[in-house]
Amino acid sequence: MRLQALQESPTAFGSSYREEVRRPLAAFQKLLERRADNWVFGSLQARQLIGVLRLVRERGRKERHKATIYGLYVAPAERRRGIARRLLAQAIATARKLKGMRQIRIGVVTSNAAAIALYAKAGFVEYGQEDDALLVAGRFHAESQMVKKLRKSRAGKVRAHLSR
After folding, report:
1. Which of 7, 48, 67, 141 is the most exposed place for a label (fewest CB within 10 A)?
2. Bridging pattern class, strands 66-74 and 38-45
3. Residues 56-103 pLDDT 10s
4. Element at 49 (helix H, strand E)
């Protein structure tokens, strides 16, 4: 499914089909390993994988309060059925259960209006934009950086107090 996603939606991923088709199967298996900081959610229909999303918690002591979503993809024939929304909801619910988790980030190419709308409905807000983030087939694409806060920021309380 990963290779299909890279071919079908090349601007949706930082990796390319040409790079990943050469990788051994063991490299993909390593991405799917269950670890304390890595979750892969899938949607199956009749034992066929039709959607996938990966949630990765930052490992460093200073960044353990953040997680990032990677590789949300639903097979084209299965879209518009709420699969991406359910995968995203499961990732958010998992992150909420993690001790100390405060926010989830995602990067999405600005031309993908459907993905941006999905994330906005789930409570993600844009905090920045990176021009020329991806180079695909000789063309640059901007990427929107989005975040969903799971808990109120202490820094916000400090700023509010200082501004009084």
Report:
1. 48
2. unpaired
3. 999 999 999 999 999 999 999 999 999 999 999 999 999 999 999 999
4. strand 48-57
Burial of 27 (0-12, 13-18, 19+ CB in 10 A): exposed
Q: Three-class SS of residue 37?
A: coil
Amino acid at 82: G
The contacts of residue 107 (CB under 8 Å, 6+ apart) are 14, 130, 133, 143, 144, 145, 146
Rounded to whole angstroms, the maximal C-alpha distance in the chain is 59
Token digits of residue 53: 């999303």
Q: Where are the domains of the chain?
A: 2-162
Ranges of H-type helices in the chain: 2-8, 17-20, 25-32, 83-97, 113-121, 154-162
Contact 56, 70 (CB under 8 A): yes
- In whole angstroms, what is the distance from residue 36 CA to residue 44 CA? 23
Integer Cα distance of 164 and 147 in angstroms: 27
Class of domain 2-162: alpha beta
Q: Which two tokens stand for residue 23?
A: 């990788």
- The predicted model scores a pTM of 0.83
**Amino acid, single-letter form, for residue 95:** A
